[in-house]
Write a structure and sequence with these properties.
Layout: H1 3-15, H2 18-25, H3 29-43, E1 48-51, E2 54-57, H4 59-85, E3 92-97, H5 105-116, E4 121-126, H6 129-138, E5 143-147, E6 154-168, E7 179-180, E8 189-192, H7 198-209, E9 215-219, H8 223-231, E10 237-240, E11 250-254, E12 260-268, H9 275-289
Parallel strand pairs: 3-4, 3-5, 7-11, 8-9
Antiparallel strand pairs: 1-2, 5-12, 6-10, 6-11, 6-12
Helix pairs in contact: 1-2, 1-3, 1-4, 2-3
Keywords: DNA-binding, Transcription, Transcription regulation
Domain HTH lysR-type: 1-58
InterPro entries: LysR_HTH_N, LysR_subst-bd, WH-like_DNA-bd_sf, WH_DNA-bd_sf
Length: 293
Amino acid sequence: MQIRDLAGVIAVAEHGGVTDAAAALGITQPTMSRSLGRVETELGVRLFERVPSGVVLNPDGELALAAARELVERYERLRADLAERLDPDSGVVRLAFLDSMATSLVPRLLRDFHQAAPRARIELRQEPGHEIVRDLGSGAAELAVTSLRPAGAFGWIGLQEERLVLVVAPSHRLAGRRRVSLVDLAGEDLVTTPVGFGYRRLVDSLFGAAGVVPQVAFESADLATIEGLVAAGLGVALLPETLAGVSGTAGITLAARGARRSIGLTWRTDVALAPAAARFCAFVERWAADGGS
């Protein structure tokens, strides 16, 4: 039994006869009869009873007709959805991005892409880096704006470099300094992201290179929240320079090699991107080459 057989059941019910149903579907009467026979054989019941004017549904047929309409409608909707998804102009782009990019890079990028492809739909997933890698692996996201290119078969388009600074409350003892080393932070309460986050690995690697064991006081998945906690006097933090001062904090240059993070667009190269995602990827490459405009 196939979808077109179920469509035949609907046609026979609507036209009240095999001959008229066959004509409506553009097939021969014997073909229509065989199609109806396949459905009844597979379901193990008769669906129609003969009457002088043609055929009518019996109670089993009424149940089958309702299911057939639902299945055919769902199948047609699936075909339409797939056709739309495979259209580079109106398809769906499944994009994941870092929480810290929610108010800066990503809105600008999406605004410019929308101007170039107004019919394309974007499904957004805002999440930390380790969840982004998971979703790229499972296919829940096709593209991601993240820091650090994932290991393995992943493409990468660099979008921006962020300098990391020490962020302190205005009353902190280091607030007046123009430059500090990580050694100066020994014994300080640190506010940072939880263990397992890509950003936490970056922060830990910087402290490790300086031979300092950070004293973590608070953890938050959101970098903007971390800046707010620092402003409240709950510790110090290493954050992208763009976040310094948002809540009245002070940003101080770090005398540490590698105190930067790279932000880029990444995607799996071992599977083909859907046309809309491929179009987005090509757009981002041009966008980045033009300086993000």
